[in-house]
Amino acid sequence: MSRIPKMIALVVLVVATTCGCAMSEEMRRINQMKEINQRRDLQMTTDLSGQQVFVRSCNSCHPGAKQGMGPALDKLGEHFPSDEKLKKFIRQGVGSMPPQPKDALDDQELENLVVYLRALKFEEKK
Questions:
Q1: Low-confidence residues of the chain, pLDDT below 50?
Q2: Is residue 125 in a domain?
């Protein structure tokens, strides 16, 4: 066998080996991304109660529905007499309150949250 065919065979072997390694690395990366996306989707379940949604999304600024970084929620009924107004406010946010779009809080979670907020009981101030 002459020198040129040997060189070509060697180049083909190196390219095939390198491409195979790169391809398997790419497949590993794709599989990792699929697993990450599946875990994220499971975390965004609609099986959360309104209280769980509140703790996950609201409690850090409205601790126990009391004043924190955000205002206390005891006047919620006065400011938002209808569920639709409250839902619109939660979706859009205002000022330092971040909006809660559907990818952060889906429609069922929003519904559960509103039911929970409407059911909150507050002590009367003396």
A1: none
A2: no
